[in-house]
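ARCHIVE CARD
SHELF: 3
SLOT: left
DATA:
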Amino acid sequence: LKDPIGANLDRIQIVKGWLDAGGHVQEKVYDVAWGDAAKRKPGTDGKLPPAGSTVDVASATWTNTIGDPELIAVWTDPAFDPKQRAFYYVRVLEIPTPRWTAYDVRRFGVKPLPGTSMTLQERAYTSPIWYTPGRG
């Protein structure tokens, strides 16, 4: 559920981490729910396209005309291995909004330095869930 005065939600992701056979940390990100689901589908590479942006940098504003105010999903790890230690956490992304630099440019009437980011995509993270195989 989005912040009542904040931006709509772009997507919910599950981030899974584990150690491979060589002892190296691996990570996979799963998009499990996303705003504008009727219009957005994962590509052939499995990646979800960006939500887009409604940011008006000149006025340092945005509209909640993309994304969704609420996202709900149930997810099961498609690669779950009961013998493998793993961790999982949820990451939620909002649609893009003006970055503080856009507000400063508008307020002070100055030009940003080349390469300055004028938008950002806020994120929220849960605490991780650690899975350890049972001894048996």
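SLOT: right
DATA:
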Amino acid sequence: MSVYNYSVKTMDGKEISMEKFQGKVLLILNSATHCGFTIQYTGLQELYSKYKDEGFEILDFPCNQFSEQAPGSNEEIHEFCVKNYGITFEQFSKIDVNGANADPLFAYLRHATGKVPGAEITWNFAKFLIGKDGLPVKQFAPPTQPKDLEQEIISELKK
């Protein structure tokens, strides 16, 4: 199994295969626009701008599960992120990351990064680094700043 075995929904609700990102280093995260960690969008965009031409992608999945900190439609969330943080990386439809309605990709990521089955993501901005082979490399806790991921991203890009 790898992330390429999954499909996700675009902001407009169309299903796409994760195979679209085959051969790239990915940073997959759950986000929220009204969270204390929302400021991380600045650092995420800096990483993306710096490494996108080397095969790095950020895949952002808004999630309203944590204190309803991602209100609004997919379009409203995207407009907020572009206007306030200038993001240019991909955002997808709002999802759940925990519980019975958890997105299958995130259930896989939780399990594949060493979390015991059923363990939950604790908050917004949990981040998963994925190697070019589509296999999860590491999960980073929500408070982890994007700049603190840079060396690991570089390492994966060199492989």
